[in-house]
Protein backbone atom coordinates (compact mmCIF):
# COMPACT_ATOMS: atom_id res chain seq x y z
CA UNK A 1 0.00 0.00 0.00
CA UNK A 2 1.37 3.43 -0.89
CA UNK A 3 1.65 6.20 1.68
CA UNK A 4 -1.30 8.07 0.24
CA UNK A 5 -3.46 4.94 0.11
CA UNK A 6 -2.64 4.33 3.74
CA UNK A 7 -3.75 7.87 4.63
CA UNK A 8 -7.26 7.28 3.34
CA UNK A 9 -7.67 3.66 4.40
CA UNK A 10 -7.48 4.44 8.12
CA UNK A 11 -8.53 7.37 10.25
CA UNK A 12 -5.79 8.57 12.63
CA UNK A 13 -7.36 7.04 15.72
CA UNK A 14 -8.25 3.76 13.98
CA UNK A 15 -5.24 1.76 15.12
CA UNK A 16 -6.55 -1.75 15.81
CA UNK A 17 -4.10 -4.33 14.50
CA UNK A 18 -1.25 -1.93 13.76
CA UNK A 19 2.22 -2.69 15.10
CA UNK A 20 3.00 -0.81 18.30
CA UNK A 21 5.33 -0.66 21.27
CA UNK A 22 5.16 -2.93 24.32
CA UNK A 23 2.42 -2.14 26.84
CA UNK A 24 3.49 0.29 29.53
CA UNK A 25 1.20 -0.15 32.49
CA UNK A 26 0.96 3.51 33.35
CA UNK A 27 -1.96 5.31 34.94
CA UNK A 28 -2.58 8.69 36.56
CA UNK A 29 -5.28 10.29 38.67
CA UNK A 30 -7.22 12.80 36.63
CA UNK A 31 -6.38 16.43 37.14
CA UNK A 32 -9.38 18.51 38.27
CA UNK A 33 -9.93 20.01 34.81
CA UNK A 34 -9.70 16.55 33.21
CA UNK A 35 -12.39 15.28 35.53
CA UNK A 36 -14.57 18.31 34.77
CA UNK A 37 -14.00 17.67 31.07
CA UNK A 38 -15.15 14.08 31.51
CA UNK A 39 -18.23 15.21 33.45
CA UNK A 40 -18.92 17.78 30.72
CA UNK A 41 -18.82 14.99 28.12
CA UNK A 42 -21.37 12.98 30.09
CA UNK A 43 -23.67 15.97 30.59
CA UNK A 44 -23.44 16.90 26.88
CA UNK A 45 -24.44 13.31 26.11
CA UNK A 46 -27.37 13.38 28.58
CA UNK A 47 -28.71 16.49 26.84
CA UNK A 48 -28.18 15.00 23.37
CA UNK A 49 -25.91 17.91 22.50
CA UNK A 50 -22.86 15.73 21.73
CA UNK A 51 -23.06 11.95 22.02
CA UNK A 52 -20.15 9.52 22.46
CA UNK A 53 -19.99 8.65 18.78
CA UNK A 54 -19.95 12.32 17.77
CA UNK A 55 -17.16 12.88 20.28
CA UNK A 56 -15.17 10.02 18.79
CA UNK A 57 -15.66 11.41 15.27
CA UNK A 58 -14.79 14.88 16.57
CA UNK A 59 -11.45 13.57 17.84
CA UNK A 60 -10.79 11.85 14.48
CA UNK A 61 -11.57 15.13 12.72
CA UNK A 62 -8.70 16.82 14.58
CA UNK A 63 -6.33 15.02 12.23
CA UNK A 64 -3.26 12.96 12.84
CA UNK A 65 -0.90 15.75 13.90
CA UNK A 66 -3.20 17.19 16.57
CA UNK A 67 -4.20 13.75 17.84
CA UNK A 68 -0.51 12.86 18.11
CA UNK A 69 0.41 15.95 20.08
CA UNK A 70 -2.53 16.60 22.40
CA UNK A 71 -3.19 14.61 25.56
CA UNK A 72 -6.37 12.59 25.92
CA UNK A 73 -8.61 15.24 27.50
CA UNK A 74 -7.01 18.06 25.50
CA UNK A 75 -8.32 16.28 22.40
CA UNK A 76 -11.75 16.02 23.98
CA UNK A 77 -12.18 19.70 24.82
CA UNK A 78 -10.90 20.84 21.41
CA UNK A 79 -13.23 18.33 19.72
CA UNK A 80 -16.17 19.59 21.82
CA UNK A 81 -15.46 23.19 20.84
CA UNK A 82 -15.25 22.27 17.16
CA UNK A 83 -18.48 20.25 17.28
CA UNK A 84 -20.28 23.09 19.06
CA UNK A 85 -19.03 25.51 16.37
CA UNK A 86 -20.19 23.17 13.62
CA UNK A 87 -23.61 22.83 15.22
CA UNK A 88 -23.93 26.61 15.51
CA UNK A 89 -24.24 26.41 19.31
CA UNK A 90 -21.12 28.49 20.00
CA UNK A 91 -18.81 30.57 17.82
CA UNK A 92 -15.00 30.66 17.89
CA UNK A 93 -15.14 34.35 18.81
CA UNK A 94 -17.35 33.70 21.83
CA UNK A 95 -15.01 31.00 23.08
CA UNK A 96 -11.93 33.16 22.50
CA UNK A 97 -13.47 36.09 24.40
CA UNK A 98 -14.61 33.83 27.22
CA UNK A 99 -11.16 32.29 27.48
CA UNK A 100 -9.69 35.79 27.83
CA UNK A 101 -12.21 36.52 30.55
CA UNK A 102 -11.45 33.28 32.40
CA UNK A 103 -7.73 33.91 32.21
CA UNK A 104 -8.20 37.53 33.35
CA UNK A 105 -10.32 36.41 36.26
CA UNK A 106 -7.55 34.11 37.39
CA UNK A 107 -4.80 36.75 37.11
CA UNK A 108 -7.00 39.25 38.92
CA UNK A 109 -7.71 36.83 41.73
CA UNK A 110 -3.93 36.54 42.06
CA UNK A 111 -3.41 34.72 45.30
CA UNK A 112 -7.00 33.47 45.43
CA UNK A 113 -8.09 29.93 44.84
CA UNK A 114 -9.55 28.81 41.58
CA UNK A 115 -13.26 28.07 41.38
CA UNK A 116 -14.03 24.56 40.26
CA UNK A 117 -17.63 24.55 39.15
CA UNK B 1 3.66 8.05 17.00
CA UNK B 2 4.82 9.88 20.09
CA UNK B 3 2.60 9.15 22.99
CA UNK B 4 1.18 12.36 24.40
CA UNK B 5 -0.35 10.73 27.47
CA UNK B 6 3.07 9.76 28.67
CA UNK B 7 4.19 13.35 28.57
CA UNK B 8 1.30 14.41 30.67
CA UNK B 9 2.51 13.60 34.14
CA UNK B 10 3.23 16.38 36.53
CA UNK B 11 5.03 16.22 39.80
CA UNK B 12 2.72 18.66 41.55
CA UNK B 13 -0.62 18.02 43.14
CA UNK B 14 -3.50 19.68 41.37
CA UNK B 15 -5.84 18.97 44.24
CA UNK B 16 -4.09 21.69 46.22
CA UNK B 17 -5.15 25.30 45.99
CA UNK B 18 -3.47 26.46 42.83
CA UNK B 19 -1.91 29.57 44.22
CA UNK B 20 0.74 30.95 41.93
CA UNK B 21 0.11 28.49 39.16
CA UNK B 22 -1.78 29.64 36.09
CA UNK B 23 -4.31 27.24 34.62
CA UNK B 24 -3.21 25.79 31.31
CA UNK B 25 -4.66 26.68 27.93
CA UNK B 26 -6.91 23.61 27.73
CA UNK B 27 -8.02 23.99 31.34
CA UNK B 28 -9.10 27.54 30.46
CA UNK B 29 -10.80 26.29 27.30
CA UNK B 30 -12.78 23.73 29.30
CA UNK B 31 -13.92 26.40 31.75
CA UNK B 32 -14.87 28.77 28.92
CA UNK B 33 -16.89 26.19 26.99
CA UNK B 34 -18.63 24.94 30.12
CA UNK B 35 -19.50 28.44 31.36
CA UNK B 36 -20.85 29.50 27.95
CA UNK B 37 -23.09 26.41 27.81
CA UNK B 38 -24.31 27.14 31.35
CA UNK B 39 -25.02 30.79 30.44
CA UNK B 40 -27.04 29.59 27.44
CA UNK B 41 -28.96 27.34 29.80
CA UNK B 42 -28.04 24.31 27.70
CA UNK B 43 -26.53 22.58 30.73
CA UNK B 44 -26.53 23.40 34.45
CA UNK B 45 -23.57 23.82 36.80
CA UNK B 46 -25.13 21.44 39.29
CA UNK B 47 -25.29 18.72 36.61
CA UNK B 48 -21.51 18.92 36.15
CA UNK B 49 -20.98 18.86 39.91
CA UNK B 50 -23.33 15.88 40.26
CA UNK B 51 -21.64 14.01 37.40
CA UNK B 52 -18.23 14.47 39.01
CA UNK B 53 -19.70 12.77 42.09
CA UNK B 54 -21.05 9.97 39.90
CA UNK B 55 -17.64 9.50 38.25
CA UNK B 56 -15.99 9.41 41.67
CA UNK B 57 -18.52 6.86 42.92
CA UNK B 58 -17.68 4.31 40.20
CA UNK B 59 -14.80 1.99 41.05
CA UNK B 60 -13.85 -1.60 40.24
CA UNK B 61 -15.36 -2.54 43.63
CA UNK B 62 -18.76 -2.45 41.90
CA UNK B 63 -17.67 -4.86 39.18
CA UNK B 64 -16.06 -7.06 41.84
CA UNK B 65 -19.39 -7.24 43.66
CA UNK B 66 -21.10 -8.36 40.44
CA UNK B 67 -18.46 -11.03 39.79
CA UNK B 68 -18.61 -12.40 43.34
CA UNK B 69 -22.41 -12.59 43.19
CA UNK B 70 -22.21 -14.49 39.89
CA UNK B 71 -19.77 -16.95 41.49
CA UNK B 72 -22.07 -17.72 44.42
CA UNK B 73 -25.49 -17.44 42.77
CA UNK B 74 -25.95 -19.49 39.57
CA UNK B 75 -29.32 -17.95 38.73
CA UNK B 76 -27.83 -14.45 39.02
CA UNK B 77 -24.99 -15.56 36.77
CA UNK B 78 -27.50 -16.76 34.17
CA UNK B 79 -29.27 -13.42 34.22
CA UNK B 80 -25.93 -11.58 34.13
CA UNK B 81 -24.80 -13.41 31.02
CA UNK B 82 -28.19 -12.84 29.44
CA UNK B 83 -28.29 -9.09 30.09
CA UNK B 84 -25.40 -7.53 31.95
CA UNK B 85 -27.06 -4.21 32.45
CA UNK B 86 -30.31 -5.39 34.05
CA UNK B 87 -28.45 -7.88 36.27
CA UNK B 88 -26.13 -5.11 37.54
CA UNK B 89 -29.18 -2.94 38.16
CA UNK B 90 -30.54 -5.73 40.40
CA UNK B 91 -27.52 -5.04 42.64
CA UNK B 92 -28.35 -1.34 42.73
CA UNK B 93 -25.72 -0.33 40.15
CA UNK B 94 -27.24 2.36 37.95
CA UNK B 95 -26.21 2.97 34.35
CA UNK B 96 -25.86 6.68 33.89
CA UNK B 97 -24.92 6.35 30.24
CA UNK B 98 -26.85 4.88 27.35
CA UNK B 99 -24.77 1.74 26.96
CA UNK B 100 -25.46 -1.98 26.81
CA UNK B 101 -23.29 -4.30 28.92
CA UNK B 102 -22.29 -7.72 27.65
CA UNK B 103 -20.64 -9.97 30.24
CA UNK B 104 -18.13 -12.47 28.84
CA UNK B 105 -17.47 -15.58 30.89
CA UNK B 106 -13.98 -17.02 31.14
CA UNK B 107 -13.90 -20.83 31.25
CA UNK B 108 -11.15 -23.46 31.15
CA UNK B 109 -11.57 -23.37 27.34
CA UNK B 110 -12.06 -19.64 26.64
CA UNK B 111 -10.22 -16.54 27.84
CA UNK B 112 -11.81 -13.16 27.10
CA UNK B 113 -10.06 -9.84 26.71
CA UNK B 114 -11.69 -6.44 26.15
CA UNK B 115 -10.31 -3.48 24.26
CA UNK B 116 -11.50 -0.37 22.43
CA UNK B 117 -9.43 -0.02 19.26
CA UNK B 118 -11.01 3.27 18.19
CA UNK B 119 -10.89 5.20 21.44
CA UNK B 120 -11.47 4.24 25.08
CA UNK B 121 -14.98 2.77 25.42
CA UNK B 122 -15.16 0.91 28.73
CA UNK B 123 -17.86 -0.30 31.17
CA UNK B 124 -17.59 2.87 33.26
CA UNK B 125 -20.74 2.39 35.38
CA UNK B 126 -19.23 -0.81 36.87
CA UNK B 127 -15.47 -0.19 36.66
CA UNK B 128 -15.02 3.58 36.78
CA UNK B 129 -12.68 5.26 34.31
CA UNK B 130 -10.20 3.16 32.34
CA UNK B 131 -6.50 3.16 33.20
CA UNK B 132 -4.20 5.15 30.91
CA UNK B 133 -2.69 2.04 29.35
CA UNK B 134 -6.16 0.99 28.13
CA UNK B 135 -6.40 4.32 26.26
CA UNK B 136 -2.90 4.30 24.79
CA UNK B 137 -1.80 3.05 21.41
CA UNK B 138 0.14 -0.11 22.36
CA UNK B 139 -2.82 -1.83 24.03
CA UNK B 140 -5.44 -0.60 21.55
CA UNK B 141 -3.38 -1.48 18.50
CA UNK B 142 -2.03 -4.86 19.56
CA UNK B 143 -4.79 -6.45 21.65
CA UNK B 144 -6.71 -7.50 18.53
CA UNK B 145 -3.80 -8.84 16.50
CA UNK B 146 -1.52 -10.41 19.09
CA UNK B 147 -3.57 -10.87 22.25
CA UNK B 148 -1.37 -13.65 23.61
CA UNK B 149 1.71 -11.46 23.39
CA UNK B 150 -0.18 -8.60 25.07
CA UNK B 151 -1.38 -10.94 27.82
CA UNK B 152 2.16 -12.21 28.34
CA UNK B 153 3.26 -8.61 28.98
CA UNK B 154 0.77 -8.58 31.86
CA UNK B 155 2.31 -11.84 33.09
CA UNK B 156 -0.61 -13.92 31.84
CA UNK B 157 0.32 -17.04 29.88
CA UNK B 158 -2.69 -18.60 28.19
CA UNK B 159 -2.17 -22.27 27.24
CA UNK B 160 -2.32 -22.97 23.50
CA UNK B 161 -5.41 -25.14 23.86
CA UNK B 162 -7.36 -22.25 25.43
CA UNK B 163 -9.12 -20.02 22.92
CA UNK B 164 -8.47 -16.29 23.35
CA UNK B 165 -11.40 -14.08 22.37
CA UNK B 166 -10.96 -10.33 22.03
CA UNK B 167 -14.06 -8.12 22.15
CA UNK B 168 -13.81 -4.61 20.70
CA UNK B 169 -16.05 -2.11 22.49
CA UNK B 170 -18.18 0.55 20.81
CA UNK B 171 -19.84 3.77 21.88
CA UNK B 172 -22.98 1.86 22.86
CA UNK B 173 -21.81 -1.70 23.60
CA UNK B 174 -19.43 -2.29 26.50
CA UNK B 175 -17.99 -5.53 27.89
CA UNK B 176 -17.07 -6.90 31.29
CA UNK B 177 -15.06 -10.08 31.75
CA UNK B 178 -16.40 -12.56 34.30
CA UNK B 179 -13.15 -14.21 35.42
CA UNK B 180 -12.91 -17.80 36.67
CA UNK B 181 -13.31 -18.33 40.38
CA UNK B 182 -9.91 -19.39 41.65
CA UNK B 183 -9.35 -22.77 43.25
CA UNK B 184 -9.12 -22.90 47.01
CA UNK B 185 -11.94 -20.43 47.62
CA UNK B 186 -14.70 -22.87 48.52
CA UNK B 187 -14.97 -21.52 52.07
CA UNK B 188 -14.83 -17.84 51.05
CA UNK B 189 -17.93 -15.74 51.57
CA UNK B 190 -19.17 -13.33 48.93
CA UNK B 191 -17.28 -10.33 50.31
CA UNK B 192 -14.03 -12.29 50.57
CA UNK B 193 -14.49 -13.36 46.96
CA UNK B 194 -15.19 -9.77 45.86
CA UNK B 195 -11.98 -8.66 47.58
CA UNK B 196 -10.00 -10.95 45.26
CA UNK B 197 -11.44 -9.47 42.04
CA UNK B 198 -9.31 -6.74 40.48
CA UNK B 199 -9.99 -4.23 37.72
CA UNK B 200 -7.44 -5.86 35.44
CA UNK B 201 -9.10 -9.27 35.87
CA UNK B 202 -12.39 -7.76 34.69
CA UNK B 203 -10.64 -6.29 31.63
CA UNK B 204 -9.27 -9.80 31.08
CA UNK B 205 -5.55 -9.08 31.20
CA UNK B 206 -4.93 -11.17 34.32
CA UNK B 207 -6.76 -13.99 36.11
CA UNK B 208 -8.13 -13.69 39.64
CA UNK B 209 -5.58 -15.07 42.05
CA UNK B 210 -5.76 -16.00 45.69
CA UNK B 211 -3.15 -13.86 47.41
CA UNK B 212 -0.29 -15.88 48.79
UniProtKB/TrEMBL annotation, chain A:
One Pfam family, short name: NHase_beta_N
Record-given protein name: Nitrile hydratase subunit beta
Location of the Nitrile hydratase beta subunit-like N-terminal domain: 12-104
Transmembrane annotation, as ranges: none
Coiled-coil region list: none
Automatic annotation (TrEMBL), chain B:
Alphabetically ordered keywords of this record: Iron, Metal-binding
Chain sites annotated for binding Fe(3+): 116, 119-121
Regions annotated as coiled coil: none
Pfam families recorded: NHase_alpha
Domain Nitrile hydratase alpha/Thiocyanate hydrolase gamma: 27-205
Keyword NAD: no
Signal sequence extent: none
Keyword Ribosomal protein among record annotations: no
GO molecular function: catalytic activity; transition metal ion binding
Family: Belongs to the nitrile hydratase subunit alpha family.
Name of the protein described by the UniProt record: Nitrile hydratase subunit alpha
Upper taxonomic lineage: Bacteria, Pseudomonadati, Pseudomonadota, Alphaproteobacteria, Hyphomicrobiales
Amino acid sequence: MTDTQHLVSRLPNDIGGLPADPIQRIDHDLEPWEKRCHALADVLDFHKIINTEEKRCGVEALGVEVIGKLSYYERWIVAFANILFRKGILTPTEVALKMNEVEGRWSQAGSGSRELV
Amino acid sequence: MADPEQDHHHDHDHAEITQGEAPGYFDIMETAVRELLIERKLIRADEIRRQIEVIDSRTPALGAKVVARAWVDPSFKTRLLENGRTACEELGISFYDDTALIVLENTPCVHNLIVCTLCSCYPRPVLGLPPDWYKLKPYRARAVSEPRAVLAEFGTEIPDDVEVRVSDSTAIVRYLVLPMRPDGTDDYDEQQLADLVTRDAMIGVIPVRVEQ
